[in-house]
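Person: Show me a sequence?

Helper:
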Amino acid sequence: MSERESFARHLAAAARSMQGETGTQETLDKAVAIAVELIEGCDLAGISIVHRDDIDTSAGSDESLRRIDELQFAMGEGPCLDALKEHETVHSPDLAHDDRWPKWGPKIAKEIGVRSNVSYRLFTTADTLGAMNLYSRQVEAFDADDIYSGLALAAHIAVALAGAQNAEHLERAISNRTVIGQAEGILMERFNLTAEQAFGVLRRMSSQRNVKLSMIAEELVRTRQIPGASGK
């Protein structure tokens, strides 16, 4: 079996393994472990996730990944940011002497001891989800085959991540709808309201308190008290 065939088999097994995880965090943790195992020369792997207002390091094979990204985000320069904003794949054979990141590169090379990097945007046809960042303690650790292999892995991770996030969003939506229905039932029984009127009460309280409707409903179900009422 050739090296490329062996990698393809391992990648297929890794893809099935990630699809078998039950949640987003489990999928991310599995993904960084697979990256270190499969990509030649990779010493550290991390995944940064894009949220509505920020980016965070949601998974890393080593605690130093959080420091690497923390400096990157604070300085506003680095391969993860470039992968997210400008290029699908960003490669640096020597971080200590890369003109693209004159402050961040030398600092993390000295402080963390990483010398080369490849970053990949994680995306689907609909969304940019985040970035996978691979680091090595060696200069020029990633050759063309490694970069291509990482690109294939990143595509599988993006699909698995999107699936896990969608499943969690659906589960959360069902849970929210359930608790809202329970809160409506409490209001209907206590104040002799219709379902439409009870929902209107919840919506007004949500607007007045600037709190999500599902959180208002959860508080009502948990305490059996109208949120914001004095209890007298």
